Amino acid sequence: MNALEFDVIVIGGGHAGVEAAAAAARLGADTALVTFDLNKIGVMSCNPAIGGVGKGHLVREIDALDGIMGRAIDQSGIQFRVLNASKGPAVRGPRAQADRKLYRSAVQGLLAEQENLTCLAGEVIGLVFQDSPRLDNGIGDAGGAWIKAGQRVGGVVLADGRQIAGKAVVLTTGTFLGGAIHIGQEVRQAGRVGEAASNDLARFLRGLGLPIERLKTGTPARLDGKTIDWARLEMQQADAEPLPFSYLTEAIQVPQIACGITYTNARTHQIIRDNKHLSAIYSGQIDSKGPRYCPSIEDKVTRFADKDRHQVFLEPEGLDVDTVYPNGISTSLPRDVQTDYIRSIEGLERVTIEEFGYAVEYDYIDPRALNDDLSLKACPGLYLAGQINGTTGYEEAAGQGLLAGCSAALCAEGQGRRFSLARHEAYIGVMIDDLVTRGAPEPYRMFTSRAEFRLNLRPDNADQRLTGMAVALGLASQDRKAAWQNKQAALTAARDYCQTHQLTPQEWQSLGFEAKSDGQRRSIADMASVDAHSIDQLKQAIPELSRFGDKILAQIKTDALYAGYIKRQSSDIRVLESEAKIKLHADFPYGDVGSLSGEELELLNRVRPQNLSQASRIPGVTPHALIAIVRHLKRA
Amino acid sequence: MSEERATIAALASGAGRAGVAVIRISGPQAWSAVAALLKAPLPRPREAALRALHHPKTDALLDEALVLLFEEQRSFTGEAVAEIQCHGSPLIVGEILDCLEFLPGLRPAKAGEFSRRALLNGKMSVLEVEALGALLEAQSPWQKEFATRTRVTAQEAMVRGWRQQMIAILADVEASIDFADEDLSELANQPWLGPLNRLTRVLRQSLSASHWLEQHSNGLLCVIAGPPNVGKSSLINNLVGREIALVHDSEGTTRDAIEASMMVAGVPLTLVDTAGLRHQTGAVEAMGVARAQKLWQEADIKICAIRPGGDSLPGADLVVQTFSESGGAGASVLGGVPLVCIDNQTGAGLADIRAMLESLSLSIIRQQGLGEALTSQRQNRLAEGCLAALEAIKPDTAIELQALHLTRGINALSLLLGDYDVEEMLDALFENFCIGK
């Protein structure tokens, strides 16, 4: 035996693993991050961009919980753009393209600064369980015999024979778990191009009898920007004033660049149709499910045959590299077909392909096997985050990673503390609740439409919603805490002023505002709730407001805009909270309830919801079943 | 034993003396409960068999009855069901029920409990249960029509259609929010507003029919006005008297309205004789006049009774001339309104009035578009909620608020029907838009 021993072991150095390791370490857990290649920590496997609508919301939340992603992209973003800028603040999506190298080094730099964190290179091939026969070689063919319900995890085994003891383990395997890359008819075992898959670990986990299934995703070819005819292309510029992701970033220092926009055409579509049978996805070589919102170009051409063109963004991958990422044409067609169809696109006629696109298939675990703190129900101490839970996207992975790392650290701490987020508190909460109650029949991506409390779960108020929790938990750094407390104080002062400063309708009218002459005094906040009343207008009318500063006033305005709607949703939140208080024990005897249909019984036994609120969101479980469960609980 | 699993028994046919009574038993012990009363073996499921029923304790013969068994999932309630069709004497029914309820695990069914179990077990939809309730309460063939299975199916399809349209609209709205970075130029000008306005109109129409139906649960109101002693009461007596003799004074004053009911073409008609319209002396009478005028306004069918040469009242659907100086009964027209002359002594002309009432009633009902009406207060309240949500959406409403209103509206319809799921919206969205990198 050796002396490697930690509180928390995180396996994987992608976006989930990074946040998990950093969060556990921030909470004071002695943490190890174990990954194949330390130099690859923080690599962006697919598109060089962070954020978007829904995804940007997640990044803001990650940052509010003092995570890595927001700060890393602020140090490396080369084109910041707020999507939906003309729509309401609740649905604006901050997005930035990244310089890949800068992003990776920003992540690695932030991890290097983190106390309590050790990064170790190695391949994890199995887990050790407490009170179980010692694992000699870590190969889990007999694993099923070792894991019994409720058996605690005790560490991991590496391919070189080393064992690392840990009180809690977070698995973030990404596309590496049993990863297989497809280009045309060619299949290779790999997690990313040129990087080995985690096959031993996949075999070990399968041996544990966990509900493992396969998903797929895809990525486009990478192009040599020097061979693109940029002059013929429409260009898209960054926002004039880049909006940082992190609440701690004052201003973006990275130079901003433009992207090209081009389109596929009839000839592109013809080439794809003629060769579709050679695509790994269409030839039947891959039958696992891919995301509908991230279709390959073969999918787009087939499913939307009436569309005569599809948009392609040409995104430079960095400030000092020529590689360009053509966003919109991911594929698993053979190399020669890729070359043909890409060169049929305007501006790309003479392009050189640096690396070909591919589809990747990987193992994931049905997330209905998880609790809302991302612990595996069958195995205390084992946490899962990212693509292993059936999600897709860096931001989704990072959000889960942060929560899983945090939960693992609390588990290792052994004080009975736990951390989870509810649907009305955060997109991270919506995502995890969706995963644990619905599973992931296709790769799960965040959309704002998944959040029923969307008007409150905004990118502008993520710190208001979450940083307080992080501070209370001990998850936030001193800097974060201080910045947040200052902002809170400023907001409270401004809110008080805006609520208590009230004028009569005549006074408002004399200041140039429309106000019904009903004798009702109206506060500044009341006036701000009208969309048309801008902050500038209010500042002009009431010069005293200027002392609060534009950022604080913008927050007041946004809060006021939605206040009425959010108030009306408070009863929905109360229902959610009261149902969440009705706990359902892990071995609740659904069979005894009676009047449950066979389907409901199967679903409830499979998911084993932690409380009534979760049960209510399992598709197929009817309100009548919930009533029957409550009545059974009352009798027991 | 859990409450839901208890076996329940009750008389399923109407109470009182009847040729045959049906006792229904539902639950896991339904069959064994019946077996406890039999000496012969139980019949095969779904095959009626004549059996002698004996008291399980005293062995006394209770009755000879048809026994019919239904298996779980293939019965009205979805549970194992037994039906005993015995002689319809309250005494016999009471004795059999006493025996059954005496058996362990059995208890009397509460009101509506069989339907409730059918609902819980997915054998009936909420709409069907409500229709069943309406059917049991129906007084007339007209109301029964709203509770038929085909009618409920059509109604459910109608509401489901609305919800489907709203989900499709929401999918467009959400696509333009969540896929801001995609090339979805087809959504740039909020193309969903047209369909949304059309749907709003459809809902408004349906609700107006529903409200009409709600207000007319007792049928149509037919008001007969005219000077005193013109023969209005006799007319009513003649119209309903011999058939149901329901004419009675109401609210204690002869100056007030007199009501009677009759059935016309399957539609219940309440006939009201207003006292003293146009006759104003004294406070009591003035009050009567005010009431009479209000009734006249509210009436679905307005009949004005006149003497020969008298004037009709504005808004009348039918003028009845009660004294015929020329002695002849018959139909003509007065000021564009049909005029019928009757003789209350001989009954001449009454058939014409009946025919007029029938055609007036049918045309009123046809005008309401009741095919699109909802049939319970609960349904109406939910559809109103949905309509309010749709009406809250204006072209300049912020898009995230449009989505909020739509979601509320869909939720209201889902409560009306069953369940809504965000995945349903996403399915609609991905079917219609090419989205992705």
Structure in words:
The complex is a heterodimer of chains A (636) and B (437). Chain A is α+β, with helices and mostly antiparallel strands. Chain A is 35% helix and 17% strand. Among the domains of chain A are: 5-70 and 107-218 and 362-446, 3-Layer(bba) Sandwich (FAD/NAD(P)-binding domain); 489-571, Orthogonal Bundle (Arc Repressor Mutant, subunit A), CATH 1.10.10; 582-635, DNA polymerase, domain 1. In chain A, the strands form 5 sheets. In chain A, strands 1, 2, 6, 7, 8, 9 and 20 form a 7-stranded mixed sheet that branches. In chain A, helix 1 (15-26) links the parallel strand 1 and strand 2 (31-35). The longest helix of chain A is centred in the last third of the chain and has 23 residues, at 478-500. Residues 133-146 of chain A have low confidence and may be disordered. Chain B is of the alpha/beta class and 437 residues long. Among the domains of chain B are: 3-121, Probable tRNA modification gtpase trme, domain 1 (Gyrase A, domain 2); 220-367, P-loop containing nucleotide triphosphate hydrolases (Rossmann fold, 3-Layer(aba) Sandwich), CATH 3.40.50.300. Chain B has 13 helices and 14 strands. In chain B, a hairpin with a 6-residue loop joins strand 3 (49-54) and strand 4. In chain B, helix 6 runs antiparallel to helix 7 and helix 11 runs antiparallel to helix 12. Residues 243-255 and 278-285 of chain B have low confidence and may be disordered. Chains A and B meet through helix 21 of A and helix 3, helix 6, helix 12 and helix 13 of B.
TL;DR?
Chain A has 636 residues and is of the alpha+beta class. With 437 residues, chain B is an alpha/beta fold.
Task: Describe the protein's topology.
The complex is a heterodimer of chains A (636) and B (437).
Chain A: E1 5-11, H1 15-26, E2 31-35, E3 49-51, H2 55-64, H3 69-74, E4 77-83, E5 93-98, H4 100-113, E6 117-121, E7 124-129, H5 143-146, E8 153-158, E9 163-171, E10 180-183, E11 186-189, H6 199-207, E12 212-219, E13 222-224, E14 234-236, E15 259-263, H7 266-275, H8 297-303, E16 311-316, E17 323-327, H9 335-343, E18 353-355, E19 358-365, E20 382-384, H10 394-413, H11 427-438, H12 462-473, H13 478-500, E21 502-503, H14 505-510, E22 522-523, H15 524-528, H16 535-541, H17 550-568, H18 570-581, H19 598-607, H20 612-616, H21 623-635
Parallel strand pairs in A: 1-2, 1-9, 2-6, 9-20
Antiparallel strand pairs in A: 3-5, 4-5, 7-8, 8-9, 10-11, 10-19, 12-19, 13-17, 13-18, 14-15, 15-16, 16-17, 21-22
Helix pairs in contact in A: 1-10, 2-10, 2-12, 7-9, 12-13, 13-17
Chain B: E1 7-11, E2 20-26, H1 30-35, E3 49-54, E4 61-70, E5 81-87, H2 90-102, E6 106-108, H3 113-120, H4 126-137, H5 141-145, H6 149-178, H7 193-215, E7 220-225, H8 232-244, E8 248-249, E9 258-264, E10 267-273, H9 283-298, E11 301-306, E12 318-321, E13 330-334, E14 337-341, H10 350-367, H11 377-391, H12 399-417, H13 422-432
Parallel strand pairs in B: 1-6, 7-10, 7-11, 11-12, 12-14
Antiparallel strand pairs in B: 1-2, 2-5, 3-4, 4-5, 8-9, 9-10, 13-14
